[in-house]
Design brief:
The complex is a heterodimer. By secondary structure, chain A is an alpha/beta fold. Helix content of chain A is 30%, strand content 28%. The longest helix of chain A has 17 residues, at 37-53. Chain B has 2 domains: 6-186, Rossmann fold, CATH 3.40.50; 209-328, TPP-binding domain (Rossmann fold), CATH 3.40.50.1220. Chain B has a 7-stranded parallel β-sheet, sandwiched between helices. In chain B, strands 15-14-16-17-18 form a 5-stranded parallel β-sheet. Chain B is of the alpha/beta class. The chains are: A alpha/beta, B alpha/beta. Chains A and B meet through helix 3, helix 4, strand 7, strand 8 and strand 9 of A and helix 2, helix 3, strand 7, strand 9 and strand 10 of B.
């Protein structure tokens, strides 16, 4: 099976957010970048399917120079090769632009299965998977927590509120991975060494036949006008050194009479 | 013309209109009035016509209904085609969906058909100079982005439990019927059924009260203390990543950066220290209560109310007090 996995490099989830001087972006000065956690489930699933059914796993990522390290991580986990979509025309792309770039890169390869994380941690949009599926004219299933195969026919379990949707279908398809799908592996030392010899092909707008005016800031349909820290919550009333029964009774009284939420 | 009109996708499941869709319709009415446009409600489910009376209070100018059998389960391709076609034919400039499992999936696919921008999981909408501007939490709530759009239409998904459902006089237009032209055999990928997950508890993302347990629960068996309190309050059970990763409770209960983002009226964090990971998922709750042994736990810094103490002593008494209160009211 020919499998693509699309990943995004994002600020580590432990990042303390600082607003940049422009007032509308993240100050990246002391940020550690990692592969978005949901993407790791996508990569793990891709590798497991390849190891069981044979084929190839190709990783794709859009972004500046530092993104090469994210692709190197995926190669170290076991992907066969990677494509780094890098071009100044890509800078500032929103979900519309990113989808356009990825779809253009994916299309000529004719993948059977294209995997994404269910959303990138940080921008938390969750749009690029379904959008790429639409641009490629493929069906998609998002937020997948379980995936089983019978030949090229799959059954996916998709998480919804308090239940699961059971989705059946044939390849090709686009899937987005949710936590619970699997337990992602760590790259082994051997994997890290092997990754150094694997190919990361760098490609830009011209090679993909993309019009720069439809990408980046120029082609964005949404833009951040402002980025701010949320209003700080001030600490409230803390009951301490009280008898548990008295504390419980007082809390219930406060929630009923003062906060009026119960 | 028509760019001032607001179309709201109304979601149904199990023969019911989902509450977050009413929130979206109410907010859509506010936006439509600010834009000087009309409010359109789009409903897609067999039997939904009989439910549209519930929408009258929220003042839709038009109600569009499709009841074809193929809409009985959520099929992304069918719903996205239907929604995009409805946006084209009504020329609505602004499309609202609730950021539910369905809305989060349907919005981007339909927006892609129209080459339209989408702002996901928004918590505030405003109209400025005849254009929509929205706020949405990013970096899991650690920052708030103000988003502007280019072009029309624009898509917005609204975080559940944030927007009030407010009556706006009431209109009861006659529902107009739309047809869905889809041959079911064309669906190569198909949703075949819905399976309830364990228990029939409320989902943490939909509840107006959430009681969550963390590392201090020590094991799966102690989650019964959390369940009892949640049940007494009519709320849902949640958990921190520590509890989920330890295998004490399923991931669907996880609140936080790699779990669900919730904004209930009341969030009670029990034995949760308040790692950034967790705070990201619940800090937009309206009232936060922390119960923790450690008076220095970061969770107390944002809690409106707190008890410093042993949750094994406090929770059963709290449940008892709540039952007493509910019994009397």
């Amino acid at each position: 099976m020919k499998i693509a996995v699309c990943v995004k490099q994002v600020p580590d989830t432990e990042t303390k957010v600082k607003i940049a001087a422009d007032g509308r972006s993240l100050d990246e000065a002391s940020v550690t970048f990692v592969v978005s956690p949901y993407d790791e489930y996508a990569v793990e699933e891709a590798l497991r399917i390849r190891d069981q059914q044979g084929g190839e796993v190709v990783a794709f990522s859009v972004g500046e120079e530092r993104v090469a390290s994210a692709l190197r991580t995926i190669l170290a986990m076991g992907a066969d090769r990677a494509v780094h979509l890098k071009d100044t025309a890509f800078h500032g792309s929103d979900a519309v632009g990113l989808s356009r770039i990825l779809a253009a890169a994916l299309k000529p390869e004719g993948f059977d299965l294209i995997l994404f994380g269910k959303q990138a941690v940080g921008t938390d949009r969750g749009q690029v998977g379904p959008r790429v599926a639409e641009l490629l004219g493929l069906p998609h299933v998002s937020v997948v927590t379980k995936l089983t195969w019978e030949g090229s026919r799959f059954t996916a379990q998709r998480e919804i509120e308090g239940a699961y949707e059971i989705v059946e279908g044939d390849l090709p398809v686009v899937l987005t991975a949710q936590k619970g799908l699997n337990e992602p592996r760590y790259a082994s030392l051997k994997g890290i060494l092997a990754a150094k010899k694997k190919e990361i092909r760098v490609t830009g707008a011209a090679e993909l036949g993309l019009d720069p005016s439809t990408l980046g800031v120029a082609g964005a349909r949404t833009r951040w006008e402002k980025l701010e820290l949320p209003p700080a919550r001030s600490a409230g009333k803390v009951l301490k050194d009280m008898d548990p029964a008295a504390a419980a009774a007082e809390l219930v009284r406060l929630l009923r009479q003062e906060a009026k939420v119960i | 013309m028509g760019h001032q009109d607001v179309l709201v996708f109304v979601e149904c499941r199990g023969g019911q209109i989902k509450r977050p869709s009413l929130e979206a319709l109410s907010e859509g009415g506010r936006v439509a009035r600010a834009l000087g446009g009309k409010l359109l409600a789009l409903c897609a489910a067999p039997g939904v016509r009989d439910l549209t009376a519930q929408l009258a209070d929220l003042g839709p100018d038009r109600i569009l209904v499709a009841e074809d059998e193929i809409l009985s389960l959520y099929q992304p391709e069918v719903f996205a085609t239907f929604l995009a076609d409805a946006v084209r034919s009504t020329e609505a400039g602004c499309v609202l969906l609730s950021a539910t499992a369905m809305g989060k999936d349907l919005g981007p696919r339909a927006a892609a058909k129209l080459d339209a921008g989408l702002a996901a999981d928004c918590t505030q909408l405003e109209v400025d100079g005849g254009e929509l501007r929205v706020k949405r939490p990013v970096f899991s709530g650690k920052a708030i982005a103000t988003v502007r759009f280019s072009g029309h239409p624009v898509f917005v998904t609204l975080r559940p439990n944030v927007f009030p459902v407010e009556s706006s006089g009431g209109k009861s237009p006659q529902p107009e019927t739309l047809k869905v032209e889809w041959d079911p055999s064309r669906l190569r990928v198909k949703t075949v059924k819905i399976e309830a997950s364990q228990g029939s508890e409320q989902d943490v993302s939909e509840a107006s009260i959430v009681v969550s347990g963390g590392r201090a629960m020590k094991g799966p068996e102690n989650f019964s203390l959390i369940r009892d309190l949640a049940q007494a309050l009519g709320g849902a059970v949640g958990a921190s990543r520590a509890a989920v990763d330890a295998g004490w409770i399923d991931h669907q209960y996880q609140v936080g950066q790699t779990g669900k983002v919730v904004s209930p009226n009341l969030y009670i964090a029990c034995g949760i220290s308040g790692a950034i990971q967790h705070l990201a998922g619940m800090s937009s709750s309206k009232v936060i209560v922390a119960i923790n042994k450690d008076a220095e736990a970061p969770i107390f810094k944002l809690a409106d109310y707190g008890i410093v103490g042993d949750l094994y002593e406090i929770l059963p008494r709290l449940t008892e007090e709540v039952r007493k209160l509910k019994g009397n009211s």
